[in-house]
Amino acid sequence: MKKAIFLSVLLTLSLPFGQAKAEESLLYRISGADRFETAVNVSIEGWETSEVAVIATGRNFPDALSATPLAYKNNAPLLLTDTNTLPSSVKDELKRLSVKSVILIGGTSVITSNVEKEIKDLGISAITRISGTDRYETSVNIAKQVGNSASVVVATGEDFADALSIAPIAAQLEIPILLTKKDSVPPSVTQFVKDEMTLDSFVIGGKGVISDNVANTFPAHERISGTNRYTTNSNIIEYFADVIDLDYPVIATGENYPDALAGSAFAASYWNPVILTHPTNSQQTTKDTVQRYSTLAEIYFVIGGEKALPDSTVNSLFE
Question: What's the 3-state SS for the chain?
């Protein structure tokens, strides 16, 4: 029902940019004056109301990489904040959504207590913080809240692209995302897998980001990877194409994380993937992925402004 209502409203508002895809589907850009407002506008497009909002830092990626499945579990948007100040656009969105509970991702070094105070000043007293001694333990503590740990996704904690490529799909399948180092598994992650008696796992990314020695420590693992972040993204979408929808794909730059992060929660809510593309030189693998599933797509949501992802680049995906 949500999808049908959303589509009927969107079709009255959207116009395609560029001509390559105009006769077959719409290209609809969601952007803002900055990364915080972009995430807010993604939330506006996807949620009429939400009792819960998940908020992560918009200044660095590690803590936020595992947050999408948690947002999906709570049917919540994923908003971004500055380290010490909650942007006014986010305050307005919390009010519009009628949020009653906020989940903060990360410790006070990435989201300070002042941000908590500003949230409380909005009349929201139910604030939960999920954090750990490092990004790896944070991912474990998020996973504990997601639950359903018979299966896990494992991605590098040293970069963002692989985790964000799998994030909306992991969310849809209600599988938590654990972060690991390239050549060793953090003790908190090892203990979690042992305690949860995890049965199988997806290792995301090649040996250059997660070694075979590390991958082999995870039960019944299957590696999904490619020669670079864009090929990995394409291979993830192809692997899961039969269990997700491809009618409202999200397109975001693969060179920075905030737009894809906010877009991942949006994509998950509509059972769609995030397609990562290079902002100035779209890879052939990305073009192939877009064109392979283009007959299924009704609307492509482009996240971020022209500086982040130019129209010319997006249009080139259909050429």
Answer: CHHHHHHHHHHHHCCCCCCCCCCCCEEEEECCCCHHHHHHHHHHHHCCCCCEEEEEECCCCHHHHHHHHHHHHCCCCEEEECCCCCCHHHHHHHHHHCCCEEEEECCCCCCCHHHHHHHHCCCCCEEEEECCCCHHHHHHHHHHHHCCCCEEEEEECCCCHHHHHHHHHHHHCCCCEEEECCCCCCHHHHHHHHHHCCCEEEEECCCCCCCHHHHCCCCCEEEECCCCHHHHHHHHHHHHCCCCCCCCCEEEECCCCHHHHHHHHHHHHCCCCEEEECCCCCCHHHHHHHHHCHHHCCEEEEECCCCCCCHHHHHHCCC
